[in-house]
Amino acid sequence: MQTNYFYTGVCPNSGRLLQLPRTVAVEEIARNLMVQLAQDERFAREGKMYGVLLVETKSGTQEVIKAFSGLLNGESILAGWVPPIPGRDRVAAAEAATLQDLAAMKQELIDLDRSPVRAEHQLLAVTFAEQLAQLAIEHRQRKELRQQQREYLTKTRQNPDLAIVLQQLEQQSRQDGRERRHLKQERDRVLQPLQAILARLDERMRELRQQRKTRSRQLQTQMHDAYRLLNFLGTASSLRELMPAGIPTGTGDCCAPKLLHYAASHQLKPIAMAEFWWGKNSEDKLQGEFYGACTDRCQPLMGFMLSGSSPLSTSTADFSLPIIYEDEYLIAVDKPTGLLSVPGRYLDRQDSVLTRLRQLFGDEQIYPVHRLDRDTSGILLFARDRQTYRHLSRQFSTRQVHKVYEAILAGEIDQMEGSIDLPLSADPLDLPRQQVDLQQGKPSLTNFRVLAKIGNYTRIEFIPVTGRTHQLRVHAANPCGLGTPILGDRLYGCQAPATRLHLHARELSFVNFDRSDGYTLSRQPGQADLIYLDTHSPF
After folding, report:
1. Is 104 exposed, middle or buried (0-12, 13-18, 19+ CB in 10 A)?
2. First to last CA, the chain
3. Are strands 503-511 and 62-68 parallel, antiparallel or unpaired?
4. 3-state secondary structure 180-234
């Protein structure tokens, strides 16, 4: 059964990596649901995530259950849809009372912020500031004039009344100082009483904000304790127990937890699940496209919620991980899109090509020679011993490896071939996004050649000379490069509908340390031998 994505998590009891696939079959079920949604205007009023879960009943028949995230047009329960996870009803009274208090505090904050005293103080403060600024201009002009007079009288020294005139000029200077002091004193006399009132208003606002924060946290704690999720072992845990480090708003209201909780509660065996966006497009989601578990709210729950669904563990799951070359030194894999090259830092990011290879071969001495982005597919190379790893890593670092990628651009370009030379650096405000940085960026060079035009899209071949993070994606999308993002590249601005990032590592050529000839691992069809291997095209 073809799989395009896995919901994954580590079982907190056994430590095993658990998986629930998003198969082509369940995606077709989801698309049929999209057709139904398109015929009902209720589902077009707002954009949100929807999900379907294919399950097996105790009698062995298959059924489909469906859910929407959060509220739908203000309602949490809709006939034919999975209900919310129980718990919120148990704190409904406390929630209503707290929300009423929070609304009253919010209104008081608005009133305090809009106090007439605040407006009066601001108007008077501006008026005095303008008067002082104007007076400063006048005093500066008079000072310059007095200085000119002093210089003239001092040079001529013929005026018998020189001392008297100089004394008069000094008196004028002191008079300007007194004028400034009097205006500042008048300003303080008028503004200080208002400032004292504003200080009391601001202190009250700080108290209200702190009270609102405290009441909100108390309500969240009550709700997170009340939400109890059930897994397939029959174990129930609260959100606070499952996410002690912090719980983002909306956790427990997403489709995946609702579907899995319902299935576990009704003794339904999960087979495959798919989530998609429907309604108004958001900044990062488009109607009709499939998405995986959200990083903050859903992914941390997956290990617990999938616990007990033993047929989905890594020991029996279909990895869909084609090995296109293997010998005593090397393993080359045709990595699918959506799968990490190596495991991440946290438990919910352990599923990866490296993890699967080590489990498949029962050998921890497998080393990743290079990496591909999670959403990029194609040839990924692993060494089976340290010596091979060091040799091949040196070839990558010294640019002796020849790499060819194939991509589909979400638009047309005029130039048929050429080079893109744009230095890159990480965007510190939007990691992992990379940016063109002409001052401090690292040199990044890509050669390209157009292979074909497909409607309004362009099939293109990339040959990266350097190997910077997201190099091909930035060089394609940036206006100084090709000015057209790779199809499916949401991070770099693609808005066209797509179910994956259309970027694939097609060829990899290098020299093995133990042989005089070389390896060329390729996905081009029709040419398959020991040196030039082929697999199926992903696009």
Report:
1. exposed
2. 19
3. unpaired
4. HHHHHHHHHHHHHHHHHHHHHHHHHHHHHHHHHHHHHHHHHHHHHHHCEEECCCC
Interval 249-280: pLDDT, tens: 667 788 999 999 999 999 999 999 999 999 98
Establish whether 351 is a catalytic residue.
no
Q: Which of 253, 334, 348, 373 is catalytic?
A: 373
Within 10 angstroms of residue 111's Cβ, the number of other Cβ atoms is: 10
Beta strands 518-522 and 532-533 are parallel
Q: Which residues of 402-438 are buried (b: 16+ CB within 10 A; e: fewer)?
A: ebbbbbbbbbebeeeeeebebbbbbeeeeeeebbbee
CA distance 23 to 66: 16
Q: Whole-prediction pTM value?
A: 0.49
Residue located via tokens 């744009």: 422
Pairing of strands 330-335, 417-421: unpaired
Of 519, 523, 501, the closest CA to residue 379 belongs to 523
Phi first, then psi: what are they for 210, rounded to 5°? -65, -40
| Angstrom distance (rounded) from CA 331 to CA 460 | 27
DSSP 41: G
As a whole number of angstroms, the distance between CA 256 and CA 5 comes to 14
Whole-angstrom distance, CA of residue 523 vs CA of residue 516: 23
> Could you give the dihedral angle defined by the CA atoms of residues 104, 108, 110 and 115, in that order, rounded to the nearest 10 degrees?
160
Smallest CA-to-CA distance from 331 within 375, 377, 392, 406 is with 392
Quote the CA–CA distance of 331 and 327 in Å, as a whole number.
Answer: 7
| Contact (Cβ atoms closer than 8 angstroms) between residue 201 and residue 118 | yes
Find, among 206, 181, 188, 185, the residue nearest to 121 by Cα: 188
Q: Long-range contacts made by residues 204-207, C-beta under 8 angstroms, separation at least 24?
A: 204/112, 205/109, 205/112, 205/113
CA 268 – CA 231 distance, rounded (Å) = 11
Q: How far apart are CA 234 and CA 436, in angstroms?
A: 52
Q: What's CA 171's distance to the chain center, in Å? A: 68
Distance separating alpha carbons of residues 155 and 149, to the nearest angstrom: 10
Contact 232/309 with Cβ under 8 angstroms?
yes
Question: In whole angstroms, what is the distance from residue 278 CA to residue 44 CA?
Answer: 7
pLDDT in tens, 85-116: 877 666 667 777 888 898 899 999 999 999 99
Pairing label, strands 402-409, 377-383: unpaired
CA dihedral 252, 257, 262, 265 (to 10 degrees): -90
Q: Cα-flanking dihedrals φ and ψ of residue 175, to 5°?
A: -65, -40
User: Could you give the CA distance from residue 18 to residue 351 in angstroms, rounded to a whole number?
Assistant: 9
SS (H, E, C) 51-72: EEEEEECCCCCEEEEEEECCCE
Alpha helices in 64-115 (DSSP H): 92-113
> What torsion, rounded to 10 degrees, do the Cα atoms 318, 321, 322, 326 define?
-120
pLDDT in tens, 498-534: 878 999 999 988 876 554 445 555 443 333 333 344 4
